UniProtKB/TrEMBL annotation:
Active site: 119 (proton donor), 191 (proton acceptor)
Organism: Ephemerocybe angulata
Protein name as catalogued: Malic enzyme
Transmembrane domains' residue ranges: 20-40
Record flagged with keyword DNA-binding: no
Domain Malic enzyme NAD-binding: 287-545
């Protein structure tokens, strides 16, 4: 060991003239102190002592010419070098676990390119193959075998105090792909990546959850790689008991948690939303998030169509092709909005027609599933009307919405008929993923002579038509849930009320810029998702305050601009 160097050991050394290097450094120190004192006193960030470099940048642990900016470009080049969307998905999934900052930086800077990989359509393929491409654990798995012991499973989550948002699926209806059992975990993961990228939710405060209650997917039950229980889905009663315990334990383990139900098959989607929505902060994305996003797109489409027809939104006639959780969820949201626009509840209900797999839904048709009864027509009692062309001819809809999972259902004849009865037909093929879309953007443009007002669930490329570029909208609940969730957790909402969902929809509708309006867009550009989410979150917080379901008195004292600034400050940003 060695002693620290000393200039002199003499007791008089303090008074001796120091050597030249010491004089020079003292002079330098005094000059720098005089120059920098005002900055220090103002606490200027860049003059604070630097924090130690992150582990990944410590000297010797990275190559000498390593540079973060170039590395981000390198990662993007690696991504683009992959041919298959699923390979890109696997690459990004790996990147997210190795280097979340870089993953989210790439997402934020390339939203339009990366969203279709981590979300629809590619996430659909990833879910189908989830048990085959599985690499490492991500998220929380709770199975029917854990019944009676769910508390202990939840308590195994490593960052229990930080948990704020969870997306929970039972895998029983993933996108339009049917029962995918525990492979549905991919959808919880994908939605939460969008929460982080789109609304700046802290990555470590998100928990993807997949409930394993069996699967009725026979091919999966026979697949040796399948990651779930080898049994058929449990009975309704057994699932209800499981869900009651799960929801109770979730709020015990994670008291600040907001829960998003995702891709439960339709009967369960309605049942569990109704069962828990007044007890816990929970919403169903397929029913409510979809309702909100479609209402928003329709409001903007109605403005554009009224330039040609002069028709207000509440005079529109909306025909739904598909009467499941999404179709009925959207119908409910539209009906509620029509009443705000001055229609009576009955008048609003009569603006809506549903088609299911048996054709037009009407009361005297026979036994109807519970969720279809409210919108069943009582003004038709003839023989079943099963042909979509006949139904369009009968209803004369101004808007045709597809939430059916039936690829290509909006044939050229359907599109041409819609164009024949409307100067600007509103056509939204909303089924996911893209291969289940009721029609493509190109078909819609060509068969309506470019007059269509279009939004689809999964993205389509823009089209050139007679020298103009036409842009498809993406009517996907991904525009809603990040901002809705952010607003709910910041306000510490005890419930997600209808008014909060509606506020998210109106917030989205009025967030288009002049440029976006001028380009004929129905939804804002996805690159602005953070801005949109902040705007939506403010509206959601205000609605939660009005509904008296918040635990955040300090937010109530802020004006809108202070609240908006706070929401933006709370957003996490990758530190790459
Ligand atoms: N864009 C977005 O943001 C969202 C899109 N979706 C998409 O919507 C689709 C439907 O979801 P969801 O409502 O939960 O699913 P469901 O399975 O509950 O609903 C499908 C509906 O389509 C009907 N249908 C099936 N086949 C036909 C047919 N040949 N002709 C007419 N109708 C038919 C069904 O009829 P029946 O009732 O008789 O079985 C049912 O009413 C999915 O593809 C999903 O990805 C969902 C949520 C959000
Ligand atoms: C987008 C979505 O939630 C769905 O297709 O189910
Ligand atoms: Mg969904």
């Amino acid at each position: 060991m060695f002693d620290p160097p000393s200039f002199s050991s003499s007791p008089l050394s303090a008074f001796a003239i120091p050597p030249f290097p010491v004089l020079l450094s003292s002079f330098f120190f005094i000059v720098m102190t005089i120059i920098l004192t005002p900055y220090w006193s103002k606490g200027v960030q860049r003059l604070k002592p630097a924090s130690p470099p992150p582990e990944k940048l410590r000297h010797g642990l990275v190559p000498s010419a390593f540079n973060e900016g170039v590395h981000a470009e390198r990662a993007l080049a690696q991504l683009r070098g992959k041919d298959q969307p699923l390979e890109k998905y696997i690459f990004l999934s790996r990147l997210k676990s190795d280097d979340p900052d870089l993953f989210y930086k790439l997402c934020l800077e390339n939203m339009a390119e990366i969203t279709p990989i981590i979300y629809t359509p590619t996430v659909g393929d990833a879910c189908i193959k989830f048990s085959h491409i599985y690499r490492r654990p991500e998220g929380l798995w709770v199975s029917i075998k854990d019944k009676g012991n769910i508390k202990n499973v939840l308590n195994n989550w490593p960052r229990i105090d930080e948990a704020r948002i969870s997306v929970v699926t039972d895998g029983s209806r993933i996108l339009g792909l049917g029962d995918l059992g525990v492979n549905g975990m991919g959808i919880s993961i994908g939605k939460l990546s969008l929460y982080v990228a789109g609304a700046g939710i802290l990555p470590q405060s998100t928990i993807p959850i997949c409930l394993d209650l069996g699967t009725n997917n026979q091919a999966f039950l026979e697949d040796p790689f399948y990651l779930g229980l080898r049994q058929k889905r449990v009975s309704e009663q057994e699932m209800d008991e499981f869900m009651d315990e799960f929801m109770h334990e979730m709020t015990q383990a994670f008291p600040k948690m907001m829960i998003q139900f995702e891709d439960f098959s339709t009967d369960k989607a309605f049942r569990y939303l109704e069962r828990y929505r007044r007890q816990y902060p929970v919403f169903n994305d397929d029913i409510q998030g979809t309702g909100a996003v479609v209402l928003s797109g329709l409001m903007n489409a109605a403005k554009l169509s009224s330039a040609a027809s002069g028709m207000p939104l509440n005079a529109h006639r909306i025909l739904f092709f598909g009467a499941g959780s999404a179709g009925v969820g959207v119908a409910t949201q539209l009906q509620s909005f029509f009443t705000l626009q001055g229609l009576s509840v009955e008048e609003a209900r009569r603006r809506i027609w549903l088609i299911d797999s048996q054709g037009l839904v009407y009361e005297s048709r026979g036994r109807l599933a519970e969720h279809k009864k409210y919108f069943a027509r009582n003004d038709y009692s003839g023989p079943p009307m099963t042909d979509i062309l006949d139904i369009i001819d009968y209803v004369k809809p101004t808007a045709l919405l597809g939430l059916s999972t039936i690829s290509g259902a909006f044939t050229p004849e359907v599109l041409q008929l819609m164009a024949a009865i409307n100067p600007r037909p509103i056509i939204f093929p909303l089924s996911n993923p893209v291969r289940l879309s009721e029609c493509s953007f190109n078909d819609a443009v060509v068969n309506t002579n470019g007059t269509v007002l279009f939004a689809s669930g999964s993205p389509f490329p823009e089209q050139e038509f007679v020298g103009r570029v036409l842009y498809p909208g993406q009517g996907n609940n991904m525009y809603i849930f990040p901002g809705l969730g952010l607003g709910a957790i910041l306000s510490r909402a005890t419930q997600v009320t209808d008014s909060m969902v509606e506020a998210s929809s109106l917030g989205l509708a009025n967030s288009l810029t002049e440029e976006e309006h001028a380009a004929g867009l129905l939804y804002p550009r996805v690159e602005r998702i953070r801005e949109i989410s902040a705007h939506i979150a403010v509206q959601v917080i205000r609605a939660a305050q009005k509904a008296n379901v918040t635990h955040s008195p300090e937010l109530a004292k802020m004006d809108d601009s202070q609240l908006h600034a706070l929401v933006k400050r709370k957003m996490w940003n990758p530190s790459f």
